[in-house]
Amino acid sequence: MPDLDELTARVRATAEKSDGLSRPVLLDLGDTGLIHLEGTTVGNEEGPSDCRISLSADNLERLMEGRLNATMAYMTGQLKVQGDMTLALQLASALRAE
Fold first, then answer.
1. Which of 6, 16, 42, 87 could be stapled to 51 by a disulfide with Cβ–Cβ 3.0 to 4.6 Å?
2. pLDDT value of position 97
3. Contact, 25 vs 50, CB < 8 A?
4. Dihedral sign, CA of 41, 47, 49, 52?
5. Residues 11-15, mean pLDDT to the nearest whole number
6. What CATH superfamily is the domain 4-96?
7. If phi over 0 gives left and psi between -120 and 50 gives alpha, with beta otherwise, what is residue 60?
8. What's the burial of 4, exposed, middle or buried (CB within 10 Å: 0-12/13-18/19+)?
């Protein structure tokens, strides 16, 4: 299972390449921890967000590697979204391009 530092570094690299997202997003990885994105700033503290995405660390890694389709993960309950779905789709697209 990937660790939080590794996943955070990968998300940070993606945010920097894509000039960040327009609004804050929180990735809730359960017991593994949190990844908060706001623009190109990425950290592990909970902060305000317009979208909270809950998924396992393994599924985040699979999503970034292109081995998990975000839409199918959402439909099967492997990924849950609270808040702005458009923002979740923007993040999923950016992570896939990583």
1. 87
2. 64
3. yes
4. positive
5. 92
6. SCP2 sterol-binding domain (3.30.1050.10)
7. alpha
8. middle
